[in-house]
Amino acid sequence: MPEFESVSFPGTNGTTLAGTLDIPDGDPLGWAVFCHGFALGKNSAAASRISKVLSEYGIGVLRYDAAGLGRSTGNWEDGSFSTKVADLHNAFDFMRSTGRSPALLIGHSLGGAAALSAAPDLSGLAAVVTIAAPFRPSHVAHLFEDELENIAAQGQADVEVGGRTLTIRHELVQDLHRHDLAGCIASLDMPLLIMHSPTDGTVGIDNASEIFRTARHPRSFISLEGAQHLMPEREQTTRAADIIAAWSGIYLRQARERAGSGS
What we know:
alpha/beta; about 260 residues; eight-stranded mixed β-sheet; single chain; two-stranded antiparallel sheet; 10 strands; Rossmann fold
């Protein structure tokens, strides 16, 4: 059976990020990194369940907590979309240092936007998957839109998001609005799988349409009918993982062959 290993690695601004490696039996088909959504963490339903199922298919996965979440050090409120992208680079550097160079990048919700932003600059990456990702990082601001005036006036405000109280700083809001993913998506010179529920009430399906229109081929879209944005249903996470494994298999095999030939 697949195993797991607790790991840690350096993050942005002197933080230490806590992660879990879901390790397949035998020789892995390839390695992946999973980037979780806004304030969700590595043990969220989407991150943990999809990673575990992928490991059963022979795909090893690193999932990790952003700073200030889980066992990662630092303060969550000090983070931003920019640090989320930077920490994806740190995660890839860590995996390469262990001899497990990732060829697949998966991002859920805002983590999907971060994946699209980071992907063009990640060497060795062969394919990207987004799940319920916004086309614009600033979309996440709708979660606390009632407090935006207070955040602008006072510099920060405590807001309730997903049953948790979070401190949202003005710097985070500004940083979300600074990022435009269109150029990153258009320059993505690798296969892209876009997964989204047509009834997602948090990040609408129009976001998937914009990502798809902006991306170049090879691009694919899978409709996750019936799935909620956070994907709490095990049936939906299993289905998503099954599809990711089937879709990415050819690209992971090609990446392994290239690595074996030294090309």
